[in-house]
Amino acid sequence: MKTLYLDCFAGIAGDMLVGALFELVPNLDRFRSELSKMTELSAGDYEITVEKGGKGGISGTRFRVHTHEHHPHRGLKEIEDIITASALSPRIQRESMRAFALLAEAEAKVHGTTPDKIHFHEVGAIDSILDIVGTFVLIDQLEWPRVLCSAVNVGSGTVECAHGILPVPAPATEILLHGLPICSLGDPMERTTPTGALLARCLADAFCPIPEGTILASGYGLGTRDSDLPNVLRVLLMDSAASKKDTDSTGVAHDRVTLLESNIDDMNPQDFELAAERLFEEGALDVWLEAIAMKKGRPGVKFCCLCPPDRADALSVSALRNTTTQGVRRTTLDRTKLCYKIEEIVTSLGASRVKTAFIGQTPLRRTPEYDDLKRLAKERGLPLHEVRNRVLREIE
Predict the structure, then answer these.
(1) Mean pLDDT, rounded, for 115-123
(2) pLDDT tens, 197-220?
(3) Residue 79 to residues 98, 176, 278, 291: CA-CA distances in angstroms?
(4) Which of 36, 199, 218, 353 is the least crowded, having the fewest Cβ atoms under 10 Å away?
(5) Mind listing the domains of the chain with CATH numbers?
């Protein structure tokens, strides 16, 4: 399994994360092209630079946004309009809007108001919008790996912001880090910004030490401060499926998953779609419904979710919040599965991602991604089965 590990030993900020990820996918023209799809932001209002540098003897990449705007304060609705009006992929749009919604909730708690009345200050400026959206653009270019994260070094002391001098971590940062492991190391300073805390929370499937596996690549994102700890964020791109204990002599992989189940007989059937969608957004591997007969012969639905064990708590809460169930059962299961890789290929109809499954090193089958087939069918005005058959012929 492709895994991205965020090593926040010196903290995390939005520009540091973009810089670190850029070292893994260093195509500046492609990155600029993606950001330019947010046409509501005038290209004349900002300029981005990506340059090599060093901090504390560590070489890395510094990402900077140079802005020319004079009114950086925006509300959640204004930011959502910028994102939804863009030509960015649906998943990048969805994850970016989810991030800003979480940020608005945190700011609203700090100021005792509601998310729709929040007007962001530094975080509503162009540089922070580009930090957040730019992160998801680069994660998309990495094909959405599983993300794990270390404990987050928040720093100590005080920080000066739009609302005056505040303790570290700043109140919004502290709220965004609720329930997550943190530490305070090094000289007093703000080491984790609200944007950094937000991205760690949105991206990470779990917080843990560096996992077992093979390091494929690494990137270092540079901050702007000097201190006793190098002001850098390290990201490691790993292949955790390469661990010997994950595969056997037959060439198939083994892992453990958690099955969540709830019996429901009082929920509007239309509402299951949104409940399932939210589970997928929070890391579910699969979600499905089963028809069952409940007590007194009433028809009901078994709402099922398969997930990594470290996501079971969060997904159980999501199921409780988004369905009418009063409880969620859990079962931990051993699973045998094929190893696979996903690559983008260019067909006569357009680009499509293709999943190749393996037994050992031997390819077993290749399958086009359904979302891409659906997109090509809409773009070309063709039936879905015709697009599928044509793509399958070209990838054989």
Answers:
(1) 63
(2) 999 999 987 888 888 788 999 999
(3) 11, 19, 21, 41
(4) 36
(5) 2-242 (no CATH), 253-337 (3.30.70.1380), 342-395 (no CATH)
